[in-house]
Write a structure and sequence with these properties.
Helix 1 runs antiparallel to helix 5, helix 3 packs antiparallel against helix 5 and helix 6 packs antiparallel against helix 7. The chain is mostly helical. It folds into 2 domains: 165 residues, no CATH class; 87 residues, no CATH class. The protein has a two-stranded antiparallel sheet. It comes from Ohessyouella blattaphilus. It is found in: Membrane. Keywords: Membrane, Transmembrane, Transmembrane helix.
């Protein structure tokens, strides 16, 4: 398995050249804007920005293909289960009921429920590209240096850096162990029954856990031998100063968040946009 999922690959473009601190602030602002508001107009606007930034980053589809498949399945399940367990929640929120067509008993498709579920689906769809951008375009060491510079403990910053670095290593180890087990006759194909495949996957997870524990011990010993944590401060090789592009990105993210909050508070008088009144 040579997947590039969660792996950082250095590139030279406007998104990659932003500071890790800038990307964190932008990710938080855009996420809060989407999570705070249930106005589908605002969410679509943020989703469009997410797609534009994603295209600007020049990330290859092969890097995110697996993630997109999982997200699509999650969104589909979420959409179906929301209707199964709360088929009238939209009418309760908006206070009206415009029936499109009945199904059975309390399961009635209404415009209100459809708007609520589409809004909810778009909230996830607008956030995921930003998360992908943050993970795939941020150098872990530079990100740790950036958040340490604003006052976060360098121990916590270093822990975040190690976490970001660990994702691609974990996926790589899983692929290596999976290939090794399959060469020994472990079948993970669709020819096997679902229960057998799950059991075989567990046979991969067990050595993966032990290899992870070995790596943790190895890194901990290496950090102790180098005196990590002895001093209150440290210098960073990958530190990157904030430039004009960083300030533009931060201001844009704050403006988007502020506009979303103002529309909800002053125009809609609620987190929900109600076109049915």
């Amino acid at each position: 398995m040579k997947s590039k999922l969660f792996d950082y690959v250095e590139k030279d473009n406007i998104i990659y050249n932003l500071s890790g601190f800038t990307k964190l602030i932008c990710f938080v602002c855009y996420t809060f804007a989407v999570m705070f508001s249930y106005d589908i107009r605002c969410i679509i606007g943020v989703a469009v920005l997410s797609v534009i930034f994603f295209r600007m980053s020049e990330i290859k589809f092969s890097q995110v293909r697996t993630m997109i498949i999982y997200v699509f399945v999650f969104l589909l399940l979420n959409f179906v289960l929301t209707f199964l367990f709360s088929p009238t929640y939209g009418t309760e929120i908006y206070g009206t009921e415009h029936v499109i067509f009945p199904i059975l008993g309390r399961y009635v498709v209404t415009q209100e429920q459809l708007l609520y579920q589409l809004t909810k689906l778009l909230k996830y769809a607008a956030t995921v590209p930003m998360g992908m951008l943050f993970l795939l375009t941020t150098n872990p060491s530079e990100f740790a240096a950036s958040i340490n510079r604003i006052g976060i403990s360098y121990k916590g910053a270093f822990a975040l850096s190690l976490t970001l670095r660990y994702f691609p290593d974990l996926i790589r180890d899983y692929g290596d162990i999976s290939l090794a087990q399959q060469s020994r006759g472990l079948d993970l194909s669709k020819k096997e029954k679902l229960g057998t495949r799950i059991k075989n996957i567990m046979n991969i997870c067990i050595p993966l856990i032990f290899s992870t524990l070995d790596r943790i011990e190895l890194i901990s010993n290496a950090m102790d031998l180098r005196g990590f944590g002895k001093k209150k401060k440290r210098t960073w090789y990958a530190a990157k100063p904030l430039k004009a592009g960083d300030w533009v990105a931060i201001v844009l993210a704050v403006i988007v968040f502020a506009i979303t909050v103002m529309i909800s508070v002053f125009i809609n008088k609620s987190r929900f946009w109600n076109p049915f009144i």
